[in-house]
Amino acid sequence: MIDPKKRRTPGSRPVMHDSLQTSSSSESQSSSSQVHRIVNSRIEEEPHPSATRDVEVDAYEQNSPVRRVRRSKNNKLTAMLQVRNEQGRYLEEVLQDLSVFVDEIVIVDDASTDGTPDICRAFPKVVRLDVLEKPLFAEEWRLRNTLWQAAVSTDPDWLLSVDADELYSAEAKKAMRKLIDQDYADWFAFRFYDMWGCRTHYREDELWAMHKRHTASLVRYMPGYPYFYPQQNHHVPRLPASCTVLPGVCTELKVQHLGWAGSLEDRVRKYLRYKRIDPHGEWGNPAQYESILDPEPRLLPWKEES
């Protein structure tokens, strides 16, 4: 059995933002040198240069009251989603998939004008559905915070932040219980792949490389810990920013992001929406916005297994 103290990765920092962010070679290098990584559902150890940081975190945990709420078994996994006008897209498939491996689902509907709330109500594991009267999409940090408050009100042990167009791989779903039933890590990050124009290929170039770094989407909820989101109107982290100072693990488990997998017309609509919300690139990369319209992007075949 691996010593939990050797599993902690206090020096690791996952990417918290969505796919419309640039990645550098230094980010890729730092994300690959973790103390601990998970390949599929196997746990493997790797060396880490900053062993002294482990001592600092150990001292923090010994003196912190949050240590008492870390349970190594029988944890409840709650998925949380923010949705808006998802009828006819991927929401039903995502909820069907989540219902297989999570215990509960909490949803905030951002004032949909279609049948999205009815789709959500059809799934028994949706234990809370809040339908907003006025949309908060233009103030995304408020929407994220609204979702977080709704989710923690259900007394979760772990929260999985999922968008309405994301599917976890079979290996990720298989490993999920192993990830949450332990007492050494408080968050886990995954590799997200931007599927492009289909489900068989993902995009990879200097502007589209989210899968080369890690995105944290699974976090232990600890009552009393200060959780907060940065006040951004767009590209807000899916988990509170304060989560990253806690010990966590970057895994090699995969997630398919289907947001760009639809038709060209669908991608053009998303391009126009991003340009309207963030015309000056205050929250994202203008070059990446423009690259959405590339006629011949570089695509690579998707493989379910690592």
Task: Write a brief structural summary.
With 306 residues, the chain is α/β, with parallel strands linked by helices. The chain is 28% helix and 21% strand.
Overview of the molecule:
The protein is α/β, with parallel strands linked by helices. The chain is 28% helix and 21% strand. It is built from nine helices and twelve strands. Strands 1, 2, 3, 4, 5, 6, 7, 8, 10 and 11 form a ten-stranded mixed beta sheet that branches. The chain has a two-stranded antiparallel sheet with strand order 9-12. It is globular, with a radius of gyration of 19 Å. It starts with a helix and ends in a 5-residue tail after the last strand.
Write the layout of secondary structure elements.
Elements: H1 4-7, H2 25-32, E1 36-39, E2 42-45, H3 51-63, E3 77-83, H4 91-101, E4 104-109, H5 116-121, E5 126-131, H6 140-152, E6 158-161, E7 166-168, H7 170-180, E8 187-194, E9 201-203, E10 215-220, E11 248-257, H8 264-277, H9 286-291, E12 299-301
Parallel strand pairs: 1-11, 3-4, 3-6, 4-5, 8-11
Antiparallel strand pairs: 1-2, 6-10, 7-11, 8-10, 9-12
